[in-house]
Amino acid sequence: MFDRLKKVFQKGPPPRPEPAPSQMGAHGPVSEWAASRGMSFSGSSAGNAMTMQGKVGGRAWRMEIGKPSRDYIAGEELRARAELGVSEDVGAMVINRPLKDALERRAYSMITDTLRTTADPRLPEEMRWLAMYDEIGWEGVREDFWRRYAVLADSREHAMAGSMPPSSNC
Length: 170
Known about the structure:
disordered C terminus, 22% strand, globular
């Protein structure tokens, strides 16, 4: 019995696991990357939320990660907004394909549910976009982008108006 106890104390404390990048207090490389591009950076002391903002291509840009604001997002939610210098009437949404597919299935089941007599007016904005706008594509974008993402807009011109110039260094 004493031999077992002796072995326990000789081993020393168990190794501490490395924190995940989102748990790092200073957010390490992310805060350095933001600073190197002249962006402001703020993060929570718990390491579970962060915000970067500044200018990309001379236009305002903001990105944040934190607790999801939508019930269909598991884990952390990444939100980004950019001023693109196009008319406020222009709108486009870029969404990853697995999320698009999941939202379409959810919307379909909500609409075809025989126990409901009307569609829920509190549908997330993304579900309304899926119903209102078509998926738009165009030449000159790498195929792997189209495999991973969908772009929704009322017209191809509007979707293309929001695309970042190829010289962007973000």
